[in-house]
Structures are given as C-alpha cells and as structure tokens.
Amino acid sequence: MPNSNKPKVALIDANHKDRQLILRYSQCYFNLEEFSSVGEFISSKAVSSFKGIIYDPNEISGRPQTNITPLVNKNMFINTLIVSRYDDARFAVCCLKSGAVDYVFKPFSEKHLVDGLDALQDKINLQIRENVFDRLTAREKDVCELISNGLSTKEIARVLDISPRTVDVHRAKILAKVGVSNSPQLIIKRNVATY
Q1: pLDDT (tens digit, 9 = 90+) per residue, 77-101?
Q2: Alpha carbon of 126 to those of 19, 103, 161, 172, 177: distances in Å?
C-alpha cells in the first residue's frame, strides 16, 4: 500500500530487471510508479503529480536516447536521478548541466545508488518546503514571520495595524496552506524550510 507521506516519483527504465532492482532500493524513499519509456511517462495523465524521476536514458541496445528534451521542456528534469549503463562522461555532464541531481552508472554499487537517492530526496524535499511558503500572500508572509518571531495575535495586530480578528483569519489561512494545525507546528515547519 503506498505511503502518502512519500513523494511520488516516476521510475523510467526500458529494462524490467533494472527497474526491479532500483525499485527494491528506492521504495523506502518514494512512492514509485514504473514506466518503460519516456513516451509512456509523458502520455500518462498524471505527469504533473510526480515530484521527481529516476531515469535511464538508454535503450535496450545501450545507446542513449535523445529524448531527454520532452522532460526538460515539461520542466520535469529538475528533480531527476539518472541511472544509466551509458558511461560517456560528456553525456553525464550534459545531464547534470540540464538539471539532473546525480548520475549513477550501472552496474551500480549500493552506496552509489543510495547516495543518488539521498540527493534526489533532498532536492524534492527542498522544493516541497519552498513551494509551501511561496503560496502565501504578501500579508500572510508578514503574519507568518511575526508568528515565527513569537508575537501574540494582539502584538501582530499592533505591528501590522490590523485588527486581531484579521490576524486570526490570516493565521487560519496560513495553517491551511502550510498543512499544519497550530502555530508551534507552523514555526517548526518554517524553521526547517529556512534552514
């Protein structure tokens, strides 16, 4: 059963055995959905719901596919871990310059794959934290900042020259957008996001 707390990640690899091996290592990090090609992934109806990609750009023949472009164009390449048999350094550098978080060569050691998975998880977590607070309006950001500084509702109202009731309305909206149920949780989440 999928864990809803884990980010959803696409595993794109033409080789079924390689997918199963990567899946074994990756399932503790992510909720994975398998695809055998970029085309299959792009045509899925939920492309935008994926937070990242573990991707092998090789065809079964071992030559790299040239269809990285659809991923870049859809802005999906930013949270991508490349796991590939293609060991051309220039190609690896090209992938990294395009935004891949890491490039792991097959056959991989457990350490190299885990390091790549850690890098992907860190990148996804950073993006998730940034996005949550980016959704706040300018006034909500002001209120959030003052809450994080430990000010009471009345103090925030005085600083911003608004009513305490308006502060409470902003606080409720902030808690809902950030996905927490009280101010202490908000402060913790904000501190983690700005760490």
Answers
A1: 568 898 888 777 887 887 787 778 8
A2: 26, 19, 33, 24, 17
